[in-house]
Amino acid sequence: MKLGSLVEGGRDGTLVVLDRTLTRAVPATGIASTLQSALENWTEVEEPLRKLSEALDADGVTGALRVADLEMASPLPRSHQFLDGAGYLGHMRKARAARGAEMPPNWDTDPVMYQGPSDRFLKVSDEMVIPDEGVGLDYESEIAALLDDVPMGTPVKEAAAHIKLLVLLNDYTLRALTKTELPKGFGFLQAKPTSGFALAAVTPDELGPRWDGERVQLRVRTSVNGSMVGEPDSGIGMHFTYPQFIAHAARTRDLAAGTILGAGTIANEDAENGFGCLAEVRHWETETYGAARTPWLRHGDVLEMEATADGQSVFGTLEHRIAATSKKNETNEPADKRR
Question: Domains, the chain, ranges and CATH?
Answer without folding.
Answer: 2-69 (no CATH), 82-328 (3.90.850.10)
